[in-house]
Amino acid sequence: MKHSLFSIIFLLIANFSYAQKGSITGLLLDESDLPLIGATVQVKGLSYLGTISDNNGKFILVNVPEGKQEIEISYLGFETYKETIDLAAGQELDLKRIQMKGNFILGDEVVILGTNLQGQAKALGQQKNANNIVNVISADQVGKFPDSNVGDALKRVPGITMQYDQGEARFGLIRGTSPDLSAITINGERVPSAEGETRAVQLDLIPADMIQSIEVSKTLTPDMDADAIGGSANLVLRSAPSNLRVSGTLGTGYNFLTEKPMLNGAIVLGNRFFDDKLGVIVSSSYFDHQLGSHNIEAEWDDADNPYMTDFQVRTYDVHRIRRSLSTTLDYTLGTNSKIYVSGIYNHRDDRENRYRLRYKDIEMNDDGSYTAEIRRQTKGGLDDNNNKNTRLEDQRTYNVTLGGEHLLANRFKLDWSGTLAKASEERPHERYISWRQKDVGLSQDLTSTRQPNINDNGAGMQYGDFDLKEITQEQQYTEELDKNAKINLEIPLNNTKNKSIIKIGGRYRGKEKSRNNGYMEYAPLDEAPFGNMTLQPMKDQTRDPFLAGNYTSGNFTDATALGQYDLTNTSLFEATDLPEEYLGGNYNAKEQISAGYAMLKQSVGTKWFFIVGARIENTQVDYTGYQIEFNEEGDFDPSATKTIEGTNSYTNFLPNVQARYNINENTILRAAWTNTLARPRYYDLVPYRSISREDNELSEGNPNLKPTTSMNFDFMAEHYFENVGILSGGVFQKTLNDFIYDYQARNYQDPASGNVYDRYSQPRNGAKASLLGTEVAFQYPFTGALKGFALYTNYTYTHSEIQDLGIEEREDETLALPGTAPHTVNGSLSFDSQKFSFRISLNYTAAYLDELSDEAFKDRYYDQQLFLDANASYAFNEKLRLYVEGNNLLNTPLRYYQGFEEYTMQSEYYNARVQLGLKFDLSK
């Protein structure tokens, strides 16, 4: 097959190499010498000779006839650029840098783009000229919102819902699909995940100020990786500037929950050297934030007469430090040939202490009273320079790419790249101490099930009655290593107004993922100092006010004392390894993906443009897991533990058809029929078996899982206003096959052993799901009396259904696809003048199903959220700007509920935070 492919390429090159036509290249820049992406470049009079500028602002026109030609370059919101050149036969002409002016004529007025409109113009210009349905956020736009990480920036995009952790956006749900069903890439290369049980990428790990632009592709083309049912968000790193660039940010802030300061800073340095052959840019970011949360959690039983079976009051103290470093180097080998190296390194430390008051195993007595076990737990870590008496979550990722872009025979575009990427999460010396008081009588205050409470008659504050339950220390480590390579070749087939281009290419992705956890329990040899809770140093963790409601936390073992326990000293503590706590979750996985594609890009006159093609992806997976069992007494049975291996392979053929129709220069219709997939979660594929004899339950992995596939239909209409605005609307429909669900059964007979289990669970294929949605977006900068004001808003509606779920108790129900928020709204109103700018923004997401259970009352829902943010800036001059930002001004909580909206499962508050600082750009 390889020989046939290269033979075709050779014949095509030979067939065209005799034509002595030339090429024209150039670099498009704005007035700040930043690249203009997606600009239209055409030869006047030869409308079929056109192209768009790439992510570096560079364009290449091929098949240009010799003689005098007029080049015309247009970009939304910028003055059209024209230049007449005289091209010799076979000449490779480089126009070097072309600086376009940020202004346009509206009626009789010349409109000069302000800082806000420049960012909007760049994003809309790129979106307008894209071949597929895409939304773009430029770095200028990111800087105009108070968004510290790319997750917070992505929530501004139509159809994207975010899930939060400690007040920051972490996982993105694109078009009503779970984070596992979408892709996050950096410069087109998949970002590995440090999560052990999912493929989802933590977006709060990557600072927003490290990115040149964010491209969210709602429809994929055949030359893109196919594993993105919801869509693909591509983070584009900064490219080397054309001149010296020195810019940065220095700021501070204040968190109203912890009442502690924040610190953030960023720097960008770039220039070109050796007669502009070598381009270098380096970016760095630092963010130091002491944050926290106030939290309650509950579990409910008995849908007819609901009561809590578990209730917790939690207080979190978190110190988050995020560092990032990226660089891009490119070297020009010739007029139309270059090689480049780009990379980004992200490192985030989360140091956390958690104090948990828990009423566990609440049972209702015959007289309507309740009995429970009360526990008080402190989470911390070793007292050293690394953990600092806290649970340390050390997450790191890097992506490094070596690639090249070449124009062969003045006609054929060849690009290639190789990428090494890694993500890891380490939790060293994670410690817990837990105290308990058994068989405590209590009552439940369910006056408000949104803020339920427990009355234990003061028993929870009788610290002398709490006995030591356990002291434990965990070691957790997860890593994912990716080795990727790809090559693409574009071949023009003709030189007419009905231009045809064939693009072919191949991809290899090699992935290795592993999780290696450990868990030790420590018993003090001298029990006297641990006879009750009061004998160890305590600290009152009650917060006033406690934002989650009228709850009192009380005293807990001091985290510093926990960190100073000398657990490795065998004269003080007896250590016990507990494989049953971690071994079933450990695994090793290898995944190899080989892919190839072919696509035809076909223009029909100046109105129609088509993409027709297909992609083939073959996946080979090998997994190793562990079987663990428990005896009838509930004790771990080491004799039954063994290693289990699994393997699987499958091939997916994915056809793709997309059409674009230009009604006029500013009105576009788009339609697409695409096929995409989502591979199973790593842990779901692991062939583990976990058997609990005490509860008579069996759960196991499934190495034979197939990927979920989706057939997608999209239609979008876009109208671009001359004053740099847009009105767009469209519909999309997805049909998912082999949807992976958690199969649950009662009285299950295991075919391997013949044993009958009360409950059985396993991830399986078979369910089908459909998703229907619509998107509307409107951006409009006002003129006249409202000049300087601009409105930005979008709305997304989604509806989903699952058929044939496979849960016996719910086979007659119509269920929604988890992660499908029915309504999502973004809006902002801004004002921009030469010196001053201001923006207030809203983000609303309706409640949606988050996790299915075997009965409706136990389903988990992510509650509705409304966020209000604001920011303003004042420019002292072109080089220096003062900014102020406010986040979560409504103190919106993270809330889950069980079954019905009034039954809180989790309610977590973070309060507001503000930042103040300076942004400088010494290049201007």
What would you note in describing this structure?
Helices cover 5% and strands 61% of the residues. With 924 residues, it is mainly beta. The protein has three domains: 2-113, Immunoglobulin-like, CATH 2.60.40; 133-236, TonB-dependent receptor, plug domain (Ferric Hydroxamate Uptake Protein, Chain A, domain 1), CATH 2.170.130; 237-921, TonB-dependent receptor, beta-barrel domain (Maltoporin, Chain A, Beta Barrel), CATH 2.40.170. The strands form seven sheets. The chain has a 32-stranded mixed beta sheet that branches. A five-stranded mixed beta sheet has the order 10-15-16-13-14.
Q: Percent of residues in helical segments? A: under 10%
Largest sheet: 32 strands, mixed
Name the poorly predicted regions: 1-19
Number of helices: 6
Mean of all residue-level pLDDT scores? 89
- Number of domains as seen in the coordinates: 3
Percent strand: over 45%
Q: What CATH first level of the largest domain would be assigned?
A: Mainly Beta
**N-C termini distance:** 54 Å
Query: Structural class of the helices, strands and pairings?
Result: mainly beta
Corresponding CATH superfamily of the largest domain:
TonB-dependent receptor, beta-barrel domain
Shape assignment: globular
> What is the β-strand count?
50
Examine the coordinates and then state which fold CATH places here, giving the name of the CATH topology of the largest domain.
Answer: Maltoporin, Chain A
Q: Based on the coordinates given, report the CATH architecture of the largest domain.
A: Beta Barrel
